[in-house]
């Protein structure tokens, strides 16, 4: 009986292991040779467009980009004639690799830690390169992502990963680039079904509670500043050590905030501590766009396909916010945090912004160059320019248009990566079953 139980347990654990992996899709091998992508319409990512252009790649780096480049004899050539060539898209803030099935299998999730102040938590060491979601992102042109912890007041540090790797060490593109702070809400939560539970229950003073929490956060950063200003310490404080990069500006403070009051507090943090602050969420950022610009605060707009923050806002306000920030000169990126579609619609969020005031090249910048600047990796990626990593997407049509976007090739640091994934495999499986292929 004992042997039967052990056997069944082994099969169950094996099933869990294989359910998390995608064993027939492997990371691409390093390509040390030369590569030429020829004949395509090249969208550089900085607003420039080159018709019938060529990209020369050597050892994973872009060497030249232009219209008058002749491929070297014997080099690998990819014909992109009639196609659109883009920088790899960047998903700035996401739980990809940390959360697989949000409300289903608890063992597939590792995105949140116990406790309220967890700056020493590092998402990178929990990043799962075998996530099935990663393949669906690559197939939509998303090649880099900021894998981010969640929960508490200070969640920990995010890291930028490239989405074609054997393990987290291979995936790491820039480690611990930002510390994430969840700003307390200044608005009362709506009562469920419009009812109060309990005859003597009173409405809490939400603003008072939020301000008290803000003072608690400030006290933490003041203590951390004093600690990191000292030369030696008898005992190491891991939490204070983890935020040292904020004071030297080697890290950014990503403040998750949607309300104007929350963002005003974030600006106050930037002034008091000298932090490089980015607002994550920012659904009401259009109301204070000029103030954000004056204080050099960047914004990551989490989800365009959403309802406005308050009932008094225009129903299409989320669609118009990118154009308002662009007009004010605010550095902003577009993101996708939709749980059901699992972030694959990033490019189409940008396409929606085009319909509401951005040009196509501005929208492209919001998911490439702008995102790279905010994440601190624009020296390596975000545009198709000489000296940068060859993170390149070739599409059969407009990548921002759901009707015509068809990703045909993706390259990460010069390696052509697989576009196969669990969803394409299921598609072919059942097309074959019913004789449709």
TrEMBL record:
Pfam families: Amidohydro_1. One of its GO terms (molecular function) is hydrolase activity, acting on carbon-nitrogen (but not peptide) bonds. Keywords: Signal. Residues 1-21 form the signal peptide. Coiled coil: none annotated. Residues 350-398 form the Amidohydrolase-related domain. It comes from the Bacteria. This is Imidazolonepropionase. It comes from Puia dinghuensis.
């Amino acid at each position: 009986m004992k042997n039967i139980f052990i056997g069944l347990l082994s099969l169950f654990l094996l099933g869990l292991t294989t359910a998390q992996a995608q064993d027939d899709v492997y990371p691409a091998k390093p390509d040390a040779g030369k590569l030429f992508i020829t004949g395509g319409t090249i969208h550089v990512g900085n607003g420039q467009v080159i018709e019938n252009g060529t990209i020369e790649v050597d050892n994973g780096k872009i060497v030249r980009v232009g219209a008058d480049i002749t491929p070297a004899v014997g080099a690998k050539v990819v014909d992109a004639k009639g196609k659109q060539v883009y920088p790899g898209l960047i998903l700035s803030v996401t739980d990809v690799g940390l959360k697989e099935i949000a409300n289903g299998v608890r063992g597939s999730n590792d995105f949140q830690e116990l406790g309220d102040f967890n700056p020493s938590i590092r998402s990178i060491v929990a990043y799962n390169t075998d996530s099935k979601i990663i393949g669906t992102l690559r197939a939509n042109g998303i090649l880099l992502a900021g894998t981010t912890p969640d929960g508490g007041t200070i969640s920990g540090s995010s890291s930028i990963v490239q989405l074609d790797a054997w393990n987290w060490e291979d995936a790491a593109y820039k480690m611990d680039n930002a510390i994430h702070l969840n700003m307390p809400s200044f608005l009362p939560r709506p009562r469920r079904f419009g009812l109060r539970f309990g005859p003597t229950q009173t409405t809490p003073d939400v603003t008072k509670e939020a301000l008290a929490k803000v003072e608690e956060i400030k006290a933490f950063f003041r203590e951390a500043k004093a600690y990191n200003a000292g030369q030696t310490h008898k005992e190491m404080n891991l939490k204070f050590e983890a935020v040292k990069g904020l004071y030297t500006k080697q890290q950014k403070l990503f403040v998750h905030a949607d309300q104007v009051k929350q963002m005003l507090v974030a600006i106050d943090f930037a002034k008091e501590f000298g932090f490089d602050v980015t607002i994550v969420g920012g659904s009401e950022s259009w109301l204070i766009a000029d103030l954000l610009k004056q204080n050099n605060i960047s914004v990551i707009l989490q989800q365009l396909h959403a309802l406005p923050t308050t009932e008094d806002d225009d129903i299409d306000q989320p669609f118009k916010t990118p154009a308002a920030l662009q007009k004010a000169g605010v550095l902003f990126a577009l993101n996708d945090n939709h749980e059901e579609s699992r972030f694959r619609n990033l490019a189409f969020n940008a396409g929606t912004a085009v319909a509401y005031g951005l040009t196509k090249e501005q929208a492209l910048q919001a998911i490439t160059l702008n995102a790279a600047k905010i994440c601190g990796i624009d020296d390596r990626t975000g545009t198709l320019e000489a000296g940068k990593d060859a993170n390149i997407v070739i599409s059969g049509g407009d990548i921002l248009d759901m009707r015509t976007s068809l990703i045909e090739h993706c390259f990460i640091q010069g390696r052509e990566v697989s576009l196969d994934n669990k969803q394409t495999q299921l598609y072919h499986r059942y097309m074959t079953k019913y004789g449709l292929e």
